[in-house]
Amino acid sequence: MSSQHRTSQHRIKATRPTGIDQLPSGEFRARITDANGIRRVYVGILADAVRWREQQSAARARARAGLEEPPEADGDLTFGELITLFEKHAASDYQSESAAYFLRRWREWLGRRRLSSIRDRDIIAWRDERIADGVSTATVDRELSALKGVYRWAMRTRRMRISNPASGITGSTGVGTRIKPTPRRPKPGAVERTRAAILEHLESGTAERVLQIYDLARWTGMRRIEILALRWSDLHLDDDEDPYLVVERRRGGASKSYTRDVPLVEPAATLLRLLVAAKPSGVADSDRIWAVKPRTITQAIRRACKRAQIPRAERATLHPQRHLFISLAREAGMADAPLREIVGQRDPRSLPGYTVIERKVAGRQLREAMKI
Prior knowledge:
Elements: H1 3-15, E1 20-22, E2 28-33, E3 39-44, H2 46-64, H3 79-89, H4 91-94, H5 97-110, H6 120-132, H7 137-156, H8 190-201, H9 204-220, H10 224-228, E4 235-236, E5 244-249, E6 258-263, H11 266-277, H12 294-307, H13 320-331, H14 336-343, H15 359-369
Antiparallel strand pairs: 1-2, 2-3, 4-5, 5-6
Helix pairs in contact: 5-7, 8-9, 8-12, 9-11, 9-13
């Protein structure tokens, strides 16, 4: 390298603000530790990185002086700036031409708003106006999908500490409402009839595998995709008094979203111990327990119920087992906070949508409570 080039590189580095590094990709990374001791990072062009760090430094100074509470991470970005980042780094991979058009419309509607100021009530009000103007619910859903895609990308790929104000909002739920799960607790006897149909109408090897997954969903309340993602290393069954498994929740291409520990009741622990005892030799702990696709399991259960001529309303397919697990736990008096941790529901408003209390149980509790 010539001395002139080294001098030029030294001048560029010397004029670069403190706390900003140049990445091999040519972008610039700004880093700062806020008033709460949380390390925050921003990646973009030099001008944006400098501006972001100055804003964060000013917010940190105000917070330490007691003038205001520390702001949410990245909340000072405007929605227009977020879309600019998205279009630069991910638009070609994530979006179609129609979605790009919807994002231009969102830029017009929310472009100057700061991310920290956008709330779900703003999105609901916008949705209601669109429906009142005669826009079809299908179009509104597509517009909302584009908006949600930008937020998901920012939160999972760029690791921005922001919330998605459009989460759970749809164009087809009526005015001023949000998506709520419809309780789908199986009717009494439906689980036994469905299990019998699986055993009778599926091939022996397939029936055994489907029943393992079906029963594990029943006794853990886990989602189908979580069960099929389990690996042998996720099972912790050595302690007879406290067996558990580790669930890793993956979303939207992110390498890892979060993990949680799921304690096991005796039927689930017994089922998994039998699987471990029958584990084939040469299988690595990092291998998945069931190497099948989610859709394959669902179709197999539906095929068995159809062959057994079980009416659709009386079937207990895979996801209703989650509703049954939550309902039984709440019937037994389990507190909502630990139950949400076990089943992976972060929103405290979600559990009622999974719960159906049987009349006999409700009546017994009522009579016990009303004893005089």
